[in-house]
What does this fold into?
Amino acid sequence: MLRFYRHPLFIVCLFVLLPLLLTGCEGTDTGRHTKQDDFHPQEHVPYVRPATIIEALENPSSQWVDSVFNTLTPEQRIAQLMIIEAFSDKGPKYEADVMRLIKKYQVGGIIFFQGGPVRQAKLTNKYQAAANVPLLIAMDAETGVGMRLDSTVQYPFQQMLGAIEDNGLIYQMGAEVAEEFKRLGMHINFAPVADINNNAANPIIGYRSFGEDRLDVTAKSLAYMHGMQDNGILATAKHFPGHGDTDIDSHYDLPIIPYSKHRLDSLELYPFKELIKYGVGSIMVAHMHIPQLDSSRYLPSTLSKPIVTGLLKEELKFKGLIFTDAMVMKGVTKYFEPGEAEVRALMAGNDILERLNNVPKAIKAIKTAIRHGYLTQEEIDLKCKRVLAAKQWLGLHNYKPIDLNNLYEDLNPPISDSTNKVLAEAAITLLQNEKRMLPIKARRKARIATVSVGAVRPTAFQREAARHHKTTAFVISRKASRKEANKLRKQLRNYDVVLLSLYGSSIRPSNNLGYSEASTKLVQDIIRHKQTVTVLFENAYGLNQFPGIEKSRALIVAYQPLYHAQLAAARIVFGELPAHGRLPVTVNRHYRYGDGIRKGKAVFARR
It folds into this structure.
């Protein structure tokens, strides 16, 4: 046998067959790699971040997006289209439920609500560590993270911002909000509110809107949006197609908007069209019934294909992400069961479902809808890739845990206090100044009382007033009894001038101040019988709760009881600061949109 290997015939055969054998081996290898790959292995293609989120969403394929997408099961691709709610103040059992949804279903993101910054940061790190695909972290923070979290900065609500003429200040606020978001590992702010509020009875928008003028609302929405998106946070314009002119809260029922397409197109839709033109990254659709756009009975706009796909995507050419409003709200759940609602929302054209009632039930219903042809897997896959592309644009392909060191300090920077001061000073609105009541001069010998209704102790406004002039401070509850009101009337007999400040129940403005009959009458009597400077630290529409308030010698709207708003109002009273603000809404026949006395000159809307 050994001698055969030395045989001349074997050697000849070997030289003939060897190249063929080698070629055969190479051919087997090229089933996996090309010849070029053998010499030049395929390298990782670095991600070049598109200039805008819209560009990223229009071309959602990338090495990272495709590789992550290919690891997901069809069920997990559905779950990527879901953002679930989370709180950082509800304890371990609640947190375990959130963790279960992340681990078991691989949901796409979280929207945080009430809690504390350190607790939220720790939970975010824990939830992100458990997620196979990094989570989008969102917050409904129209006034910054202080709207939801303790120990953080709260900026003004949009009505107060609507009184400001310099929109650059609103851009600056948006930029600072973006920095807060990034410091807390968040990516999406469900703001600005682009609704035009021209209904004083609106129970849900009101003070959350920049005002009633479409150009003002648009300009300020753009400033806030650019401030956030220029600094890496996705802005979300809401509540499409416009929630400003309704007297029903969609948290509790389904509002009906009866207006024509022409009216909607010229007014409610105007800010959204401009925001789309200038690159807003996402839009939230409201739960409202709009018969002129979709006559289907009891159908919320969120679930309407003519509104979401026909109007928003096709007519207005919106290419960004489309969020539903919270799917737990009665505006949708009153008429549609969990599961069916989510299916209809995706069929309508929404990309992301926010705050679901039941994640497993929704996933099951969506899978059934795909099986029966109401949705296709291809539609789900494209939405999933768009969500992944947004995650990459927002930096989640290079996810890093939140650094807990110096978190409180970083979330309360000196610049935020300066910004709040400037915003307040630009917003305070002087509506009347009869007989040149203001400024009150220090040399005036009149005895001055400061009265705060709705306070439990002397307020910042009263303390600042005392710095300018000798005053006596009184406080009384919003719910005062007749006996308490009569006692204060007697105490005020010896005072010539009253600086009367009116407060609601909290830092959040209210549509209803909740004053007792005795407190309301006390306010009216003080205005009637004293030289009164009245300052409303509340929703401008609150003026309507005090018939006769127009008889005040001077009247100031400060919009909110923010610390710097109280200081600014007192400084205007004593002439240390000129008034700059203008009324962003029409309150009644006495006080209309645009009214204000600025730098000593009255500027009033056309009557």
Remarks:
- Residues 417-603 form a domain with the Rossmann fold fold (CATH 3.40.50.1700).
- The chain has two domains: 53-403, 417-603.
